[in-house]
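Worked example

This section walks through a single chain of length 391. The input is the sequence exactly as stored; nothing has been trimmed or padded.
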Amino acid sequence: MPSLERTRGRGGSRKLSAPRLRRDTPERAGLDPGELRHLVHEVRALTAGERPWAAGAVVVAGRGPVIAVEEAAGWAVRYGSYDPGADRGVELPPGAWVPMTPDTPFDLASLTKLFTAVAAVQQIERGTLGIDARVGAYLPEFGAVAAHGVTVRHLLTHTSGLRPELPLYECPDTAARLAMLRAERPVGVPGMYTYSDLNPLLLQHLLERVTGRPLDVLVRDGITRPLGMTATRFGPCPGAAATEDQRRPWGKADRGMLRGEAHDENAWALGGVAGHAGLFSTAADLAVLCRTLLAGGSYGPARILGPDFVELLLAPPGLGFAVDQPWFMGELAGRGAAGHTGFTGTSLVLDPATDTFLVLLTNRVHPRRRRPDSRPRAAAATRLARAVRAT
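Given that input, the structure is written out below as tokens.
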């Protein structure tokens, strides 16, 4: 991992440009067309049958500046509700089904964390945030976290010791939610890994404190607008793929069939803008983010990070990003692949070693959440890895 002294001296001073993405053949991308045909076939199969793995899916894959696969399958909206007695979705009349298209927006769920991480590293690059500074130096009112010496790096690497989540959705108002978050103390020793939604939530408060701007504005002005990611925004998002008939006992709130509102109960309770969830986007927009990071932080004339700070973001163990995780990256894992998954059925992987990227977006929780299963994500990533090796 590069030192901050070196990255401050170099990352902010470079003016780089990188080719924009274009759609072309697998051969032009340096990928084997046979493996990519298998990839498309397997993604389509995920949405087939009476009880599909996911109601619908969109997959985008490529190498370098070339998108070699862009495919939609299944349905953005298929069910009107879920019948717990029959353990199956109640289908809408066929005329009311909404087909999935490559331009369909999805509730990204935890892929939102990646944008929060990029926004944080942008502030580290500018010198307004210290990666090893204590959170209490910026947020002294978060006394329990401050007393445990939690740092910005701890938040970015899920090593703060905070538990996975808090029931903020049960609080009656914003003040009560904030009081609960401020009073939360780590249950583990800082430095030990525990994946937690509370880490990016604290990062959100920290970023808003040091910049004086809300998270949605930081993401828009610092990431999506300069990169031309016009379909990426916090909700509400009319036209998005439907998610869940959210009800207790499987859900944590009784909200009915959701479409275009944050699926995550805490993100919803926080008004739809949260450090851990709440963003909506398309596969093509996320491919732009992947390409930007693979190109060292530049896309066309825009630069959102210097190359050394991209390295800081993606180097093991990753800041916000997971690194080399075969359970969802398949055979792409092993040489520095980075990415993330989202509870609603979303995922992305970028692999600097092969200059490849894979975005797989599904509405797997439509009509209701199921036990986590990332085997199809890993299988898709493995197809892409084999498409590289076969050329």
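What to look for: The chain is about 35% helix and 15% strand.
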